[in-house]
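Hi R.,

Here's the chain you asked about this morning:
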Amino acid sequence: VQLQESGPGLVLPSQTLSLICAVSGDSITSNYYWSWLRQVPGRGMEWVGYIHYSDSAYFAPDFKSRAAISRDTSKNQFTLQLDSVTPEDTAKYYCARVDSWGTFDPTRDYLGQGTQVTVSS
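And here is the predicted structure, written out as tokens:
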């Protein structure tokens, strides 16, 4: 299974960040949590949200009010949108396929290489 993130490296404050995760080797309709995470400098990994095989989505409380995740099954990819970004959203963003939300087990889960996003004017 391979996951590849793509998106703009630089976003202006107050704009919407949009990232795509292209998946190969598995279908995004399979029974996993197709997730977005981010690594902020000096902090641990933060779990942003997921879209489930059933097409239901969930977001961590810190992101619930301004995040959305959608999917395109014809392209086997899913997208994160994060509204009203601030410099505090500067991070390396990862997409992942995980068996259990909030837990990454390298023996069974998959993580993309990540894409750096900087929020700055």
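One quick note: The mean pLDDT is 96.

Cheers,
M.
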